[in-house]
């Protein structure tokens, strides 16, 4: 059976990590060989780069340096985990991917989408997911969920509401431009509601 590469995207606190776990269970029950992973990270080298990105002060890196570090981490992740797993017939569920860089460093930061895609081409051969699920939730609700989850925020999770509104708007723009790949999913309601919506949005891939 052919492998699949599926990414979950959206702002902080929308439920990506929760739903990846639930999705992995649901797919495993269907007999699918599932690998869950996250970006930045997923391999030893990429997790080391993640440490550089997630810790330290707000001004440790500028938008350009961040975009380069994300591209470098992703290159290792794609080469060592994602491509080999898909080739082996597995379903890869990845918590964030290049579209997060496009939304954060592009939409809310100052890097052009063309430049981010150039870095992605150089680093990762331009690999794109078979399906990208964008979990959509009002920014305040995501912030409430994230705050209830933990008191501490990392370097990436400490920006203003206006910034997160721009991120959410960019995710919607990206989805509108590539309707075949993207599905925008309402992330409100119960955990089960959201999992069912995501499974529906993957139905054509089974
Ligand atoms: N549908 C939901 N309703 C209520 N709380 C939720 C829902 N989905 C996730 N949560 C909770 O919100 C918090 C953030 O979820 P998480 O999966 O960590 O988000 P993300 O990975 O997108 O930042 C967690 O405490 C999680 O248990
Ligand atoms: Mg998460």
What does this protein structure show overall?
The chain has helices at residues 16-29, 44-54, 63-87, 98-108, 113-124, 139-149, 161-177, 191-202; strands at residues 4-9, 34-38, 91-95, 131-136, 182-186. The chain is α/β, with parallel strands linked by helices. A five-stranded parallel beta sheet has the order 2-3-1-4-5, sandwiched between helices. The mean pLDDT is 93. The structure holds adenosine-5'-diphosphate and magnesium ion. Residues 16-17, 95 line the site of magnesium ion.
Quick structural gist:
With 206 residues, the chain is an alpha/beta fold. 55% of the residues lie in helices and 13% in strands. It contains 8 helices and 5 strands; from the N terminus they run βαβααβααβααβα.
Name of the CATH class: Alpha Beta
Question: Radius of gyration, Cα only, in angstroms?
Answer: 16 Å
Largest sheet: 5 strands, parallel
Kindly state the percentage of residues in helix.
Answer: 40-55%
Shape: globular
Distance between the termini: 10 Å
CATH architecture type:
3-Layer(aba) Sandwich
Structural class: alpha/beta
Overall structural domain count: 1
Please report which band the strand proportion falls in: under 5%, 5-15%, 15-25%, 25-35%, 35-45% or over 45%.
5-15%
| Oligomer category | single chain
Question: How do the SSEs run, as a string of H and E?
Answer: EHEHHEHHEHHEH
- List the strand order in the largest sheet: 2-3-1-4-5
Ligands bound, unique: adenosine-5'-diphosphate, magnesium ion
Number of helices in the DSSP assignment: 8
Spans of 5+ residues with little confidence (pLDDT < 50)? none
β-strand number: 5
Q: Provide the residue-averaged pLDDT.
A: 93
Query: What is the CATH superfamily?
Result: P-loop containing nucleotide triphosphate hydrolases
């Amino acid at each position: 059976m052919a492998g699949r590469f599926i990414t979950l995207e959206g702002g902080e606190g929308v439920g990506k990590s929760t739903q990846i776990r639930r999705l992995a269970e649901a797919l495993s029950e269907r007999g699918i060989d599932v690998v869950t992973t996250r970006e930045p990270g997923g391999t030893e080298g990429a997790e080391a780069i993640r440490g550089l990105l997630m810790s330290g002060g707000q001004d440790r890196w500028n938008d350009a340096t961040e975009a380069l570090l994300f591209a470098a981490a992703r290159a290792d992740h794609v080469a060592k985990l994602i491509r080999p797993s898909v080739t082996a017939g597995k379903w890869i569920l990845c918590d964030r991917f290049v579209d997060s860089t496009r939304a954060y460093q592009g939409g809310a930061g100052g890097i052009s989408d063309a430049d981010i895609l150039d870095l992605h081409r150089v680093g990762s051969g331009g690999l794109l997911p078979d399906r990208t699920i964008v979990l959509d939730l009002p920014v305040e609700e995501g912030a409430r969920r994230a705050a209830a989850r933990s008191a501490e925020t990392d370097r990436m999770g400490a920006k203003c509401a206006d910034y997160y509104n721009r991120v959410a708007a960019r995710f919607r723009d990206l989805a509108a431009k590539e309707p075949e790949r993207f599905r925008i999913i309402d992330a409100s309601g119960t955990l089960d509601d959201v999992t069912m919506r995501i499974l529906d949005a993957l139905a054509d891939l089974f």
